[in-house]
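Hi R.,

As promised, here are both runs. First protein below:
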Amino acid sequence: MKSSKTELISFLESFPLYRKKDFSQPKAPSDLTVAARRAFVSSQLPPPKGFSLPQIIRIEMPCLQTCGDRRTFERRLSQDELVGRSLSGAPVSDVMEPRHAYRLAFTCTHCGEHRIFFLIHVDRIDTDTIEGFSLTKAGQWPSARPKVDRALERALGEAVAPLYEKGLTLEDHDFGIGAFAYYRRVAENMIDKLLADLRAYAETTGAADLVKALDNVTHGTQASMRIAAVKELLPKTLRPDGLNPLGTIYQALSDGLHGRDDEHCLTLAADLRTALDFLITTMASEKATAEKYVAAVRGLQKAAAKKTKAGDQ
């Protein structure tokens, strides 16, 4: 079976480990009667032996060891494989047969040094209506474990960033309950800093009601109750398209995990992560911009004072 090259590239670049990706097609047009469909299927060639890889596959991946940026990687055979192919006269294109695992190697086209390896397991799909193959990414090296964005990592701090990264990993593998639990822990650990940064932001933007509400919230109060007291006063600039990220965090901290399945928790985890990302990075950026502005103005004032003092002498 010939693969959709675009789908295969997307699978290699971003599909998580251990989740099957189907590459299938209908055995016959859907508008045929049952009898006509059977006749159509019986008239076709035998099913393909395996999943056919294109001769040339190029993917975009980070070249962290050498280039330090995203680069184009091309599938290249090792020297031993090239010699074997040459002696046998076999084409470069592979057919990956079901119930086997295959190693695919890609080399950075920029530096020619950094290599990425995938271990792909193949299964056959054969039902009354569809046929094809499913691929599972059984391994990847260097590790594809998701990393926290550097700006967000700095804002989270050394103690909390590893918890966030574990949440990312669990979410990437569809473990919704575990991912949601880790993101909740991140929210609980970040609540003091989050509200302190929110107060500084409110004070800078002149949101007096929010400043007053935050001052009335004690540190000893339960996190969800503290958020409840201020979430509706969030400035419009922190409510993209009318959405309230603080409300999302409040909901996550208020609800329990009892009776929730992985699929439901996966949606909750993604919502909570997105809300945390937005609030933490936005306020960290605003704080950095304000500090840079203050430093610049004070520098200008100092230079002006120095110039005035020199003129008076």
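And here is the second one, sequence first, then its structure tokens:
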Amino acid sequence: MKKVFLLSVSILLFSFVFVPFYLSAQQNQDIAPDPECTVLLKRRVELKEEKLKKIEDAYRSGICRYFDYNVAKTAVVDAKIVLYRYTGERKELMTTLEEKLNWSKEQYRAVEAVYKVGATLSDQLIDAELAMIDAELELKQEKNLQTSIPPLNQKAGNKTATTDDTKSDSNGSRYVAGIARHFFMQGKHNESLQKIEEAVRLDPENANAYAYQGLGWAQFNLGDIEAAKKTWAKCLELDSKNAAALNGLGWAAWRETKKDDAVKHWEKAIAAAPNATAALSGLCLAYEEKGDKENAAKYYKMWLKVDPKNEEAQKGLERTE
């Protein structure tokens, strides 16, 4: 298990240090992936796949342990996740994250079976369950972040930005905001807050409100709800239909137990962007908690229309229909 821990640490260090930022090429044309970095990341995947093949052959020949094969396969999957996040290959990223979750579930079942016959320690079972939980959280967070934060060159409601919205980044605000988004996606909220504040200083009247939208989320995730609310209010002054800001105000109100206000904000958010699953999940939660199964089911169906494989939405619809 020590090997697994060291492997996980090395992967995290690689993704935070080697990859300076990643933004989806489909979502953000202002900051494209560096071709040289992409080549290196692809080569890294190839080498890990070659290593996995050798270890798999050795395992089948009885030369090495299944544990070694498990570690090598996990390393390949994690290397692909780093690559696809950097290049912005959304479909491949989600497929690989799902593969990681399925693999971790398979490993958990295998360890559980061995544990039940007394052939392994409880610590190994705990580690296997932790790996499964981490994989599921990673997949859920990726889904939520991609739907709750509109891309830099996109307005609310999934409309393509105008020429004015995508004009050259003369003051560097967009570039800095992009780096802030990278930190946010990695869960590094202090670093994200610092960069997004810098972007706001560079362009206080940011026409597409992206900087204020990101600043609000950074403040919210650091627990400064009041500051986040003020920032999102500024964002809505610039873009009254900014779904991310409306969604954020909804969750801020929910945290303050102002549940009716939360519903109003979320309904505005999905009116602006019908695929905003973070707002849809909030509406499902609110109406189900009220006992209003009809409305809860309606929003669960909308959620599933956007994300058909979402288990939480599927279970929610089963409860409320």
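A quick note on the second one: Residues 1-31, 147-169 have pLDDT under 50 and may be disordered. Let me know what you think.

Best,
J.
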